[in-house]
Amino acid sequence: MSPQPRYPIPAARFRCEIEVERSRFITTVQPVASASEAQAFVAELKAEFPDANHNCWAYLVGPPGSTNQIGLSDDGEPHGVAGRPMLTTLQHSGLGDTALVVTRYFGGIKLGKGWMVKAYTAAAQTALEQVPRAERIAWVQLRATFDYALVTPLDRRLAEFECETLATDYTDKVSLRLRLPEEQEARFRRMFADLTAGQGVLDTV
C-alpha cells in the first residue's frame, strides 16, 4: 500500500495576482502527476508570458510535504529569493502533486533580497490558500466471483468501502469488476471472505 494513498491536490488550474511595490506577481497553480508534467506546465507558462521579466517556478510530485520529486528555479532572479521560498511554501501548504509558476512584471522599484523573498512567498501563499482542492486517491481494481444468492448482500456492503461496480458478468456465477480506494482493500477482502464463507474468489485486475 502507498504510504499516503489519498491527499489533497489542486482541483484545476488556478491563477491569482498580487502587487508589491508596483511589480506584478501572477501566480498560476496546476495539478501535476509527474516531473515531466510539471516541466511541460512551466514551458507552457513561459510561452504564455514571454515578455515577463521572470517566470519562477517550483513543483512537488507526491504527497504533501514530500521531497522525493521536487524542482525549483529562480529564472534569473537573485539566487534563493524565488524558487526556494516558493517550494517551502508549497511543502507547507498541505497539497501534493502541485506545480506553480510566479510570473513577475517589474514595476520600476527595485526590491532588496529580503523583500523579494517576502514577495514570492506571498505570491505563492495567496494562490495556494485560494486554489480549489480535490483529492488524489490511489485506486485498486478487483474481480469478485461468487454465487448468485450473494448479489444483494454484497451490493448492500459496497458503499462502506467506497466501492464502485465497473462491470458485471453473469455466467454460472456472478463476476463483478470493482474499483475501490487502495486503503480499503484489506478490509474489503476480509468482509468478502466472511460473506462468501471463503467460497468467493477475489482477483486483482
Automatic annotation (TrEMBL):
Q: Which residues form the UPF0029 domain?
A: 145-199
Q: Which residues form the Impact N-terminal domain?
A: 22-128
Query: Which spans are transmembrane here?
Result: none
Classification via InterPro entries? EFG_III/V, Impact, Impact_N, Impact_N_sf, Impact_YigZ-like, Ribosomal_Su5_D2-typ_SF, UPF0029_Impact_C, UPF0029_Impact_CS
Q: Which domain of life is it from?
A: Bacteria
Q: PANTHER family annotated for this entry?
A: IMPACT FAMILY MEMBER YIGZ, IMPACT-RELATED
The record's similarity note reads:
Belongs to the IMPACT family.
Kindly give the NCBIfam families that the UniProt entry links to this protein: IMPACT_YIGZ (TIGR00257)
What is this protein identified as?
A: YigZ family protein
Native source species: Desulfuromonas versatilis
